[in-house]
Amino acid sequence: MGPLGAFISLAALASAASVPHSNVKRQVSQLRDKYDFVIVGGGTSGLTVADRITAALPSKSVLVIEYGDVQFAPGVFDPPTNWITPAENSPPTWSFVSLPNPDMGNLTAFVQAGQVVGGSSAVNGMFFDRGSRFDYDSWAEVGGKEFAKSKIQWDWRGIFPYFKKSVTFTKPSPAIAQRYGYTWDLSAYGGSTPIYSTFASFQWADHPVLWQAWKEIGISPAKECAGGDKEGICWVPASQHPITGKRSHAGLGHYADVLPRANYDLLVKHQVVRVVYRKGPKSGPPLVEARSLVDGHLFNVTVKGEVIISAGALHTPTVLQRSGIGPASFLNSAGIPVVLDLPGVGSNLQDHSGPPVTWNYSKPYDFFPVPSTMVSNATFKAEAIAAFSQTPAAGPYTLAGGNSAIYVSLPHVTSSYRTIVDKIRRMAHDGSATSYLPPDVRANPAIAAGYKDQLLALANLLANPSSPSLETPWATSEAPGTAWSFLLHPLSRGTVRLDLADPLAQPILDYRAGSNPVDMDIHRAQVRYLRRLLDTPTMRQRGATEIGPGAAVAADDAALAAYVKQQSFLSFMHPCCTAAMMPRAKGGVVGPDLRVHGAEGLRVVDMSVMPLVPATHLSATAYAVGEKDWKKR
Length: 633
Hints:
Strand 6, helix 5 and strand 7 (196-198) form a beta-alpha-beta unit. This protein has a domain at 3-75 and 124-170 and 246-349 and 575-630: 3-Layer(bba) Sandwich (FAD/NAD(P)-binding domain). Helix 2 (44-56) runs parallel beside helix 19 and helix 13 packs antiparallel against helix 14. By secondary structure, the protein is α/β, with parallel strands linked by helices. It is built from 19 helices and 23 strands.
């Protein structure tokens, strides 16, 4: 199907999405007696798996159970909003606030996830990048010799074909490509899936200011950053339709766009409470116990083949823990009978975090248009709204949240990188790193062994001049200017635990950001590196004047650490790794086939299975993981 045909299909299905579809179920009486597959969670990975199974195995029935509902999902920057301001018709989200982080000045992490069919792909920033090849090679590294023997490999070579399959990339028109200098390499793509990505037909007028300044501090533009090599200045496509400019997400591409299918059922507005093994974890597949959010009715779903938990990095651990699968010590304290002692369930929580470098301009800022123009100039905004309604869509509203970022390795950030890397290797080998783990798991030998392997893999990543450790995305440099310092490879580890006061409520997140002190070493190095931006000819010409942290603060380790603790965002909404794909003897929860260790008929397929957070936003990886999983059936 060509782009125009896809547009017609998308438009019809998007309007139909607000009307209950025949495949949408809302009460238990509408369900079949048994299902071959039950998928817990209708998010990015879960719907990918559901689509692929129902297409490849038409004789097999699939039920997806989703807490949210089918709902329209606007883009991060759609009419009539002003620059990336929340739309009134946005789907609901889960909102989490972590416990205070004592090593980061008691800051809390604020995290959101999609509470809708499509999951976080329906509410995220639409920044559709992939990690470098070295990120995924590190997954294989922490799997060790045991996983190396598997026929299923999760290194770059093993996952790259599924990145390609998972998305349909549309190159920009020659005129747009020439206007903005877009570059790409089609060999990084090649899919025909109705999950779309493309480049915007618009940039803010001041966008080239930072592009030029980054080049002046020595960062080279990369032709393509989705093919495994990511160091440099990158153009990043957005997850949007090339004709409509609207958000492309799993609720459309892996649900609405592929219906009708007689073997594909979706039960909305229901919460999966737990999976139930009636005769122990070897007796699977388990039953699925769910409850209605309308009347609280509890019921069981009988499964003939397999249960696939795809509830996300923050909810998958709670489903497992309520099922008696998790750390025995915690389950005992919660009064939950232990079905399977897996200390890694809910451990190993990771996310990207970091502070900004900020500045103002002392000279006139005479660019047009910039984001503030949306507020100050009614004519321009009206024209922008009209342009988005064109075929194809055009103008500012096609920009989503921006499509540019720098990715820089630690050796290019600081000449002291060897000192940092050596410190990581020493703490791994002498065992002192264990003291930085959460208190309830640090004495567990499996968790300690797995953390050691992770640290050694991270040391290799951070020593690699081609493996980015810093990200700074941008779309404009309008005052006050901001360059965010994303810590892409954190060493600190947190936990996700059931709320014992209400096990069906939101879990307790203990991010423990900054608990490993090497994270602060990297934060400081990255902030100092980004400050170099303000001393470039381009920024001096504009009269850039630093707001934070400032020269005096940056020159002092203690003062800069205090700045990082005061100004950091502890979550850039990329939580992961809480049911890690590692050997059971190393604290892992799933194997290379994503089956839960020791649990028959039970898999996990979402961002909780990553052992290490990659240097990327997570949406594209979530699709690829779903694509790779279904192929093993």
